[in-house]
Amino acid sequence: MIFFSANTAGKEYFLFCLLTDIDFATRKVAKHLKQTKEIIQDGDNFKTKTLSTLRNYELNYTVGVEFEEHTKGLDNRVTLVTWDGDKLVCVQKGEKKNRGWKHWIEGDQLHLVRVAIQNHSGCRKIMEKISLISVS
């Protein structure tokens, strides 16, 4: 189990929210949040939790298996996560078209690049590792 932490504030994140039609109130609140991400990997099976004071989100998936992602009415979608070398690449099909993300770890940093293809936009977030717990 690995824990990472980062602030969501930043011009790239705010612009990404604008271009992907995230409402005004959510954008204003989100820019003040600090998120913690918990990741548990068992081969190609991942359990992730993104935790903040505004909203907690859990996403469990198997790499290479398409699944329905339910986002509490924000934008339900069909999601497929695959490997591209050592990076996880996600393609999402739903109400908001052509979105996705890439995740990878370099040293003690978790990198996340969110992409909105139709707008040719994206944002990068780097989260710092705050702890590593070995589960046996």
TrEMBL record:
GO terms for molecular function: lipid binding. Residues 21-110 form the Lipocalin/cytosolic fatty-acid binding domain. InterPro entries: Calycin (IPR012674), ILBP (IPR031259), Lipocln_cytosolic_FA-bd_dom (IPR000566). Coiled coil: none annotated. Pfam families: Lipocalin. Belongs to the calycin superfamily. Fatty-acid binding protein (FABP) family. This is Retinol binding protein 2. It comes from Pavo cristatus (Indian peafowl).
